[in-house]
Specification:
This protein is mainly α and 351 residues long. It has two domains: 11-74, no CATH class; 97-351, Type II secretion system (T2SS), domain F (Receptor-associated Protein). Helix content is 81%, strand content 0%. It is built from 16 helices and no strands. Helix 3 packs across helix 4 (64-71), helix 6 (91-137) packs parallel to helix 16 (295-350) and helix 12 (235-243) runs antiparallel to helix 13 (249-263). The chain is elongated and about 95 Å long.
Length: 351
């Protein structure tokens, strides 16, 4: 086994750990027996190291939730739910639901990546062709045009100058450095919570990007809230833990206001009545769920609905981006052809 202490666990690793532990607890094994079995299993060194640390803490009398929190590898959201499972005797159920939660989160992220991969690749290929092809493959043609006894149009001269500039050592060395610098500056600018909130508010106002971002925030929030209410957590801590999983500042402000209203005696539906970030559908589901006693179930259904809305919005975004990239490519390549063909035709006519 590796002696290297893990500093991070992926969602896939957490999902595997939660599901394996839940399965063995459901089969009647004690927590220590389940951890012993996981420690003997051939698997990833990171998981086995975590299991060994957890087992050592449990032998000393600590609870699983406390031991998980001390590793620094599990979010407080997970630790709080596991603590509820320990107190209510439903630890196996909580672990199983946490595994499903990790699966749903991974599926949502994979869906976003799959929807945006093709437009991103198309844009990258187009940009590469526009930069690399003229700069490195057309120098011979440029020399022919410059040596011909014809006056080169302004468009042609500008195209030749731009291509040679892009192929110059200054650009080849400076462009990667500029990209790294821009990345670091952007990352530093987004480091503070206030800056991230400003960025989110701008993105939420954009006509095409705003809807999938809001639906993504609501899907994450409602799925986490449903999970916590299902395992027996009360609404106040469940609301606070759920909204911390999103980056949406407007939703966070609405939830914080709702928490204050609930403390003053309002119901969950009443607390979200004036919330701008909460859609009418979610508000209706909360009201119906409170009246019928099926709030966690309806929140789960609502989370799935928002996930489908994210998929639909991203599909529409990808469908809009693909022809836009093709049109831009066509216009640019058309200008390149005009810049090259006009002097070539003039040169042939002068022969």
């Amino acid at each position: 086994m590796s002696n290297r202490e893990p500093t991070k666990m992926s969602r896939e690793q957490r999902r595997t750990f939660f599901r394996a532990l839940a399965t063995m607890l459901s089969a009647g094994l004690s927590l220590l027996e389940a951890l012993d079995y996981l420690d003997r299993e051939k698997g990833e060194d990171e998981i086995r190291t975590v299991v060994e640390r957890l087992r050592s803490s449990l032998v000393k009398g600590q609870r699983l939730s406390t031991s998980l929190q001390q590793t620094g590898l599990f979010p407080s959201f997970h630790c709080s739910l596991i603590r509820v499972g320990e107190e209510t005797g439903s630890l196996s159920l909580v672990l199983q639901r946490l595994a499903f939660h990790e699966e749903n989160t991974m599926a949502l992220r994979q869906m976003i990546v799959s929807r945006m991969t093709y437009p991103a690749v198309l844009f990258a290929v187009a940009l590469t062709m526009l930069i690399v092809l003229p700069a490195f493959c057309l120098e011979g043609l440029f020399q022919v045009l410059e040596n011909a006894q014809v006056a080169l149009p302004l468009l042609t001269r500008g195209f030749i100058g731009a291509s040679r500039f892009l192929a110059s050592p200054i650009v080849l060395i400076g462009l990667p450095a500029l990209a790294v610098g821009a990345y670091k500056i952007t990352r530093r600018a987004l480091y503070g919570q206030a800056n991230r909130d400003r960025g989110w508010r701008v993105l939420l106002r954009l006509p095409i990007i705003g809807k999938p971002l809001r639906c993504l925030s609501l899907a994450t929030f409602t799925e986490a809230l449903a999970l916590q209410l299902t395992v027996g957590l009360s609404p106040l801590p469940a609301l606070g833990a759920s909204v911390r999983l999103t980056e949406d500042p407007e939703l966070r402000e609405d939830v914080e206001l709702a928490i204050e209203l609930i403390r003053d005696g309002a119901t969950l539906g009443e607390a979200f009545r004036e919330a701008d970030a909460v859609t009418p559908m979610l508000h209706s589901m909360i009201n119906v769920g409170e009246e019928s006693g099926t709030l966690p179930h309806l929140l789960e259904k609502t989370a799935k609905y928002y996930a489908l809305e994210v998929d639909t919005a991203l599909e529409q975004l990808a469908s809009a981006l693909e022809p836009l990239v093709l049109v831009v490519m066509g216009v640019v390549f058309g200008l390149i052809m005009v810049a090259l063909m006009n002097p070539l035709v003039s040169m042939l006519q002068s022969l």
